[in-house]
Design goal:
Layout (H helix, E strand, L loop, with lengths): L6 H4 L22 E3 L1 H7 L2 E6 L9 H14 L4 E5 L3 H13 L2 E7 L5 H9 L3 E5 L3 H14 L3 E2 L5 H7 L1 H10 L5 E5 L4 H13 L3 E3 L3 E3 L8 E7 L4 H4 L21 H11 L2 E5 L1 H15 L9 H11 L8 E6 L28 H7 L5
Helix pairs in contact: 3-4, 3-7, 4-5, 7-9, 8-9, 9-11, 12-13
The structure holds ligand F0G.
Ligand F0G binds next to helix 4 and helix 9.
Length: 366
């Protein structure tokens, strides 16, 4: 039977690789596009979720990391470095392990989830908890890579966006054309930039490295809607935020590296970048797990929070095709599922091991 070969081999004709490239892959990509029945009912449009938590390390970062690590190996790198709110570090650590390269990660002290921290440690990364936020970490990682022989694998490395653009290809390949709207969370703004690049490339003839000119695959590009957490919404405010704050730690970022690309994605597509509150994010997080059957980490729900917010404002048209990227798996940061809407902890019901007690607890006895 055919097995998905990872995004580089599946989309080799549209990536900066050749047949001779040594590919570092864990089989990333090929993630499901799930029909969101209840969001579709709510809006009167057909809503799909691109479930990126299904990637090997549980987030969309793997798409970019296969390219970045492949480029690092091609460049003869012996060590890589990244700054991260958690998912990039988990991904870098896993792919560096496969490549046989040393990996250093800089994370903001106390502001990354246990799941992500444990991934980086399990894969043997040199993990440094920095007394500063993500923006400080990225600043140091960049300077380190300029002054020392370590290869930067953050999304300021163009190879990362090349890999991440494949998610847009998959959406088009599945739907047969681009959706009307594409929604997603925005933090460092690499992902929205990558999707926009991917959609544009698929809607135009493409000059391939090895295969000459390839025909357009899509007839159009979507309108891009990005959503930041309100306490970390520099792109909405129009200026960097020095003390970003949100429970969605993955997008707790005050000065996105791909700022200009994200603004171009918004403006060229006729889209928007708006903010959602932590409460709206947690409501959307609950909606996804309790109604759609899709478990994500809080930051991943920002796009869904955005859809619900825009619907309430009367701005979501009916009869359209809407894709929302949910970026990372719920098991990355499971504590939020154990909290009720009112903020109290969920208390599991305890029972004796007999059928009568279990039936009573389930309300089957009256
Ligand atoms: N969702 C999740 C789960 C993320 O981990 C990130 C970014 C984003 C959304 C935002 O994507 O930065 O491309 O706009 N996480 C980075 C990290 C910063 O270090 O893992 P973006």
């Amino acid at each position: 039977a055919h097995q998905w070969r990872g995004v580089i081999r599946e989309y080799a004709d549209r990536l900066p690789v050749t047949d001779a490239t040594e590919v570092i892959t864990l089989g990333e990509g090929g993630t499901p596009l799930v029909h969101a029945r209840h969001l579709s009912e709510l809006t009167g449009s057909t809503v799909y979720l691109k479930v990126e938590g299904m990637n090997p390390t549980g987030s969309f970062k793997d798409r970019g990391m296969t390219m970045a690590m492949t480029a690092a190996v091609a460049a003869g790198a012996k060590a890589v470095v990244c700054a991260s709110t958690g998912n990039t570090s988990a991904s870098a650590a896993a792919y560096a392990t496969q490549a046989g390269i040393t990996c250093a990660v800089l994370v903001p002290d106390g502001k990354i989830s246990m799941g992500k921290l444990s991934q980086a440690i399990a894969h043997g990364a040199q993990l440094l908890q920095v007394n500063g936020n993500f923006d400080n970490c990225l600043d140091v990682a960049r300077k380190l890579s300029e002054a020392y022989p370590v290869f930067l694998v953050n999304s300021v490395n163009p190879a990362r966006l090349e890999g991440q653009k494949t998610a847009a290809f998959e959406v088009v390949d599945t739907l047969g054309d681009a959706p009307d709207y594409h929604l997603m969370p925005v933090g460092n703004a690499g992902n929205i930039s990558a999707y926009w690049k991917g959609y544009k490339e698929y809607a135009a003839p493409y000059a391939s490295l090895e295969h000459g000119e390839l025909p357009a695959v899509a007839t159009r590009t979507p309108i891009m809607w990005g959503f930041q957490a309100e306490g970390a919404s520099p792109l909405v405010k129009g200026h960097p935020v020095t003390e970003p704050d949100t429970i969605a730690t993955a997008i707790r970022i005050g000065n996105p590296a791909s700022w200009d690309f994200a603004v171009a994605a918004r403006d060229e597509s006729g889209g928007l970048i708006d903010a959602v509150t932590d409460e709206e994010i947690l409501d959307a997080h609950r909606w996804l797990s309790a109604r759609e059957g899709v478990f994500v980490e809080p930051a991943s729900a920002a796009g869904v929070a955005g859809l619900i917010k825009k619907h309430a404002e009367g701005l979501v048209p009916t009869g359209k095709t809407i894709v929302i990227t949910v970026t990372g798996h719920g098991l990355k940061d499971p504590q939020w599922a154990l909290r009720m809407a009112d903020g109290s902890d969920v208390e599991p019901t305890k029972v004796e091991f007999d059928v009568v007690s279990v039936a009573a607890a389930l309300g089957l006895e009256d």
